[in-house]
Every structure is written in structure tokens, then in C-alpha cells.
Amino acid sequence: MIEALSYEFMQNALIAGILVSFIAGIMGSLIVVNRMVFLAGGIAHAAYGGIGIALYTGLPIFLGTTLFAIIASLFMAIVTLKQKENIDIFIGLIWATGMAIGIIFVDLTPGYNVDLMSYLFGSILAVSREDIIFMGLLFLIILIVLKLWYRELLAVSYDSEYASLSGINVKFFYTLLLVLSALTVVIAIKVVGLILVIALLTIPIYIAQRLAHSLLSMMFISGFIASFFTLVGLWFSYSFNLTSGACIILVASVSLMLFILIKGLK
Predict the structure, then answer these.
(1) Buried b (16+ CB within 10 A) or exposed e, 101-138
(2) In CATH, what number is assigned to the domain containing residue 19?
(3) Rounded CA gap, 55 and 115, in Å?
(4) How many domains is the chain built from?
(5) Range of the domain at 27
(6) CB–CB of 131/190 below 8 Å?
(7) From 74-78, 95-99, 101-105, 126-130, the region with the lowest mean pLDDT
(8) pLDDT score for 126
(9) Which pLDDT score, from 0 to 100, does residue 195 have?
(10) Model-level pTM?
(11) CB 177 within 8 A of CB 30
């Protein structure tokens, strides 16, 4: 594995893996605490529509997926705030519609695109410098949001009614979380694929919840745990010529089972 670090694609993969792991750790913590896992799953699968449209129109995949995911997240925010009793129905509708749009546009695209499977199951070894810049900017934005509004996010996450009575704009922060979740999903798709992205946003957080004493510590413990999963999964992927996203999630799943077993024995 050490000699592999001399290759640029492996260097890119390591940088991207660590960046995405910390982004997933921070945003995954907020997603889990706010009970938005199903919403994030809906955004992840709806994002396939952006992949299909980008392939058909010739736009960069990242750009098409990002725009479509943001639109889907804003639509979800509007619907879930106004139709709380029908949240599951509308999330399922957006989820299915996005997938259907993506499939139709892929069918309409002349020829077969070899990169398509990498967006379903991830291809961290294909990460470019431009992708890393995008990931770095998103990480910086998330850190700025935490610096500016950590107390508000904490209040909204644990007691939205109290936050509202305290004068906090709950709708704004709810929408902000969904938009940042959409961007997180887009970059995580590059690493583990849209099929497996929810696992990366939940497994490290489940473990971190039982080790942390605050939301902030949970975010960064999740980031370190996700980085460990990503690096070990990347080593398995490179060593045995296996799909990187699947290896990362398999390492995470096995680690979770071992963690539960050890905690149970204690």
C-alpha cells in the first residue's frame, strides 16, 4: 500500500476520503439528531435524476447532481414543513421521481456511459483535483456554519419548539441543514455511491453517539471513525481489486457489529 501512495490517483483518493469522512461525520450527526435520515436517503436517490440529466445534456456530472440535489432538498423542506402528516408519502414520491427521471435520461443518452456504475457504488480512485477542491470548499462552508450558528443548530436539533420560542428561525435552519445534507450526499456519492451513502452518514454516528458527551464532540469523533473506515476500506479495495465504496461500507458494518458485541459483553 505504501508504494501506491506515489501515484497521484491514490493521493487524491486519500485526501478525498478524509475530507468526505469529516463532512459525513459532521453532517451525519446533524442528520441523525434531527431525525432526517429518511430525508437524506430521499435526496441521495433523487440525485440520480441529476446524474441522468447531466449525462444527457453533456454537463459535468458533479454540477448536474449538485443542482438537482439542492432543488430536491428545497422541495423537501417546503413539503415537510407544510405537510408534516404526509412526510413519508412526499419523500417517497421525490425519491421515486428523481430515480425515474435519471433512468429515463440515461436511456435517452446515446451509447453506454462507463462512469455510471461508479456513481451508484462509488469510485474514490477516480477522484480528480477539481473534486477535491469542491470537497474542501464544502468542508470550509460547514465549518463556517458551525462557527456562526452552533448554538442555534444545537437548539433546533434537540428542542425545535423551545428554539422557536427563543426567536430562532427554525424554518431557515431546517432548510439550511437539508441543503448542506444535499451537498454532503453529492460528494459522498463519489466515494461510496448513492446506493451506500446513507450507511456512511449513519454507522460512524451510531458509534460516536455512545462515545461522545456533546453534539460537537460527536461530530468530530464521527469524522475520525469514518476516516478509519474509509482508509481501511481503500486499502482492501486496492489490495484485492474490489469496488472501493462496497469495501468502505463493509468495513464500517463489520466494525459496527464488533462494537455492539463488545458493548454487549461489557
Answers:
(1) bbeebbeebeeeeeebebbbbbbbbebeeebbebbeeb
(2) 1.10.3470.10
(3) 10
(4) 1
(5) 3-265
(6) yes
(7) 126-130
(8) 81
(9) 77
(10) 0.90
(11) yes
